[in-house]
Write a structure and sequence with these properties.
296 residues, mainly beta, tm1086 (SG structure) fold, globular, six-stranded antiparallel beta barrel, Thrombin, subunit H, six-stranded mixed sheet, 2 domains
Length: 296
């Protein structure tokens, strides 16, 4: 087992509620110049969950599960910024009010722009929820370190999920990380240049159908762990040759130019100390036994 500083992490309870679905209320235009009006971000999404395909939906930037906010009216202010920064992938969530009281879920990541955290809950719990229900997140993970790998930086990762990731120290000292997909740097779009990755996401661009097919991007599922090649996420999102970042897919494919499945960063290194290893089951649904798991 890899050594960490887990015993020194701070744990908080964070309060939030489901965020209403959002729309711009007018036509949007896809990367081919075709206008569309479709479902988009936010909501208690009853028929989509982590582990489902991220492609093929009649929507744009669809967030699976329950999109949560601490203040839907002030998404870029306290307390919603705190909710975004301190919630980590793999954190547990509990409904503490309403007909779904007692239901438990799992944080799968953040979505920038909407400023939501996305939580997977069982279908029966989602059917009982309302937009006034209160959800408590047990936040733990920011500041997590691999003490034997000081050059690898972790973000947004619950230590309990880290233990399930089946990371392996290879004979050459490189850390092998299971992923479903390796994404080249030129396929990364919206979100590049952000100052940090402790909240929000950035998108795998899917406007080039040849790249989508070549790298198997169209087979990505919600909750997949993916490798972003030549991407250094230590101090923002930037291109650096040889760098590797690992993230979790948090929203669907998109129709707008520069967009596609969104990725929340959990691990990054400026040098090739991270070696991605393809594993079709490298998905939070399969690791945690939630949502839609792959059949053997």
């Amino acid at each position: 087992m890899l050594a960490t500083n887990e015993e020194h992490l701070v744990e908080f309870l964070l309060q939030c509620q489901p965020g209403q679905p959002r729309t711009r209320g007018t036509w949007e235009v896809d990367h081919q110049g075709t206008p569309f009006i479709l479902p988009s971000i936010g909501g208690i999404t009853t028929n989509i969950q982590v582990g489902d395909q991220a492609f093929g939906w009649e929507g744009d930037h669809i967030e699976p599960g329950v999109s949560c906010t601490a203040d839907t009216h002030k998404p870029y202010e306290h307390p919603n910024v705190t909710l975004q920064v301190l919630s980590c992938v793999g954190n547990s969530a509990t409904v503490v009010s309403g007909e779904a009281k007692g239901a438990t879920g799992t944080v799968i990541g953040h979505h920038g722009g909407s400023e939501h955290i996305i939580v997977d809950f069982p279908g029966d719990a989602k059917e009982k929820m309302t937009y006034s229900d209160t959800i408590m997140i047990r936040s733990k993970g920011q500041g997590l370190k691999l003490t034997d790998y000081p050059d690898i930086t972790l973000f947004n990762l619950d230590p309990s999920l880290l233990k399930k990731l089946a990371l392996r120290r290879a004979s050459d000292g490189v850390l092998e990380v299971p992923v479903t997909t390796m994404v080249p740097a030129y396929c990364m779009g919206s979100g590049i240049g952000s100052a940090h990755v402790a909240k929000g996401d950035y998108d795998i661009v899917t406007s080039d159908e040849h790249a989508v097919r070549e790298f198997g991007i169209d087979r990505i599922r919600f909750g997949d762990f993916v490798a972003l090649m030549d991407q250094d996420n230590r101090f923002g999102r930037a291109y650096r040759r040889g760098a590797v970042s690992i993230g979790v897919v948090v929203h669907s494919d998109c129709r707008e130019a520069g967009h596609g499945p969104g990725v929340t960063t959990i691990m990054t290194c400026a040098s090739p100390l991270i070696r991605p290893v393809i594993d079709p089951k490298a998905n939070i649904a399969d690791l945690c036994g939630i949502g839609t798991t792959l059949k053997d």
